[in-house]
Amino acid sequence: MSGIEIQNLTVRYPGDVTAIDDLTLKLEGGKIYGLLGRNGSGKTTLMSLIAAYRRVTEGTILVDGQEPFENEELTQHICLVRDSGDVVVDGDSVKGTLRRARRFRPYWDEEFAQRLLDTFQLPSKRGVAKLSRGQKSALGITVGLASRAPLTMLDEAYLGMDAPSRYAFYDILLEDYIENPRTIILSTHLIEEVGRLFEQVVIIDRGRLVVHDDTDSLRMRGAAVVGPAVAVDDFTTGMTILGEQRLGGTKSVTVYGEIDPDARAVAADWGLELSPVALQDLFVHLTKGDPA
Amino acid sequence: MFDDRSPIYHQIAESIKNDILSGELGADEQVMSTNQYAAYYRINPATAAKGFQQLVDEGVLYKRRGIGMFVSPDARDMLLAQRREHFFADVVEPMVAEARVIGIPLDDVVARIHSLKAEESA
């Protein structure tokens, strides 16, 4: 259900801007994915294409084996909540927003929607224009989750929400996913906060795929090698080095790639400490370079 | 609860092992379901399932189809034996190495152990 297959997808914008650059990616259905990338990396463009907001011109996107664009049957099963407000519209009220979603969404759960309104303390009669930034986001999340779309995408859906509301969102998301498994793609910059919810992580940078892996496997692919500078340099020669820091005679080098048991034994022998790298740090290392 | 030092599934397995060692989880007692565990600790259910599966593979937990997972009757003895085996390599030897580095005579360390032992039997 709601697996996604993307083949050689390229999107060019006027002015010689390549938003998506020959992207090939296969996402199995039924998992929670973290879609990570810096601003302008192509996350929103990618999700908009999957949600059929735009036509694919180069390459293909298949959702459950079908092209989503102008496929009304399929798009009912795909829900994208993004910042630019197509789900939450200013001229509408909270109640009206839910009414519209209810009409369009075959798996809509009204009771769940009401519970979400309560949790986020959204006044149902209020006009959307009068909601705060965080309340608008919470309304978007309400629609996104209560739609129970087999493919649900939330593009930085938490903007303006304070920490307690965000954690309430994560808890409800997880609980509802457990009860109603579906494909969920979350794009976020708050990697530390939500990283543990992701079964897999997809990192894109400048429209290209950088990494697609199980979250735990990805975390274990990076290591910080810490110890006497000379030994650290020796040990990391030939490895992919993501970054290094030096404090007096001690050096810490972040490497990317698997360190096999033999190498681990060598490290222990040389008095080097190997520790995993936080997902956020790996992300920073893998996507640094000129800002987009 | 969890840190970045090792895979989350591994930390889940370790924390359940600790509960068994401390006696909080007894033989043949049912453990939380992976879903309960995932919701409680805010982690992906697949990650939690991986941690539980590791314990099943190691014989620490056993599955009863359609009911859930339970602590193996000999889990605690098995874990105690493993920890005891690692105690000298993981705890004593690094302690001795550290004592040497910072210049604490091993006789002082032994004397301290003796005094702790005396306190215990007092």
Describe the fold and architecture.
The complex is a heterodimer of chains A (292) and B (122). A six-stranded mixed sheet of chain A has the order 5-6-7-3-8-9, sandwiched between helices. In chain A, β11 and β12 (250-256) form a beta hairpin. The longest helix of chain A is centred in the middle third of the chain and has 17 residues, at 163-179. Chain A starts with a strand and ends in a 5-residue tail after the last helix. In chain A, α4 (110-119) packs antiparallel against α5 (133-146). Chain A folds into two domains: 4-206, 3-Layer(aba) Sandwich (Rossmann fold); 218-287, Alpha-Beta Plaits (2-Layer Sandwich), CATH 3.30.70. With 292 residues, chain A is an alpha/beta fold. Chain A has helices at residues 43-50, 72-75, 94-104, 110-119, 133-146, 163-179, 191-194, 215-221, 229-236, 261-269, 279-287, and strands at 4-13, 17-27, 32-36, 58-63, 78-81, 151-155, 183-187, 200-205, 208-214, 222-228, 240-247, 250-256, 273-276. The mean pLDDT of chain A is 92. Chain B has 122 residues and is mainly alpha-helical. Chain B folds into two domains: 8-73, Winged helix-like DNA-binding domain superfamily/Winged helix DNA-binding domain (Arc Repressor Mutant, subunit A), CATH 1.10.10.10; 76-121, no CATH class. Chain B is built from five helices and two strands. Chain B has helices at 8-22, 34-41, 45-57, 75-102, 106-121; strands at 61-64, 68-71. In chain B, strands 1-2 form a two-stranded antiparallel sheet. The mean pLDDT of chain B is 92. The A-B interface holds A 31-32, 170-171, 174-175, 177-178, 196-199, 215-216, 219-220, 275-279 and B 2, 4-9, 35, 38-39, 41-47, 50. Chain A: Keywords: ATP-binding, Nucleotide-binding. Chain A: This is ABC transporter ATP-binding protein. Chain A: It holds the Pfam family ABC_tran.
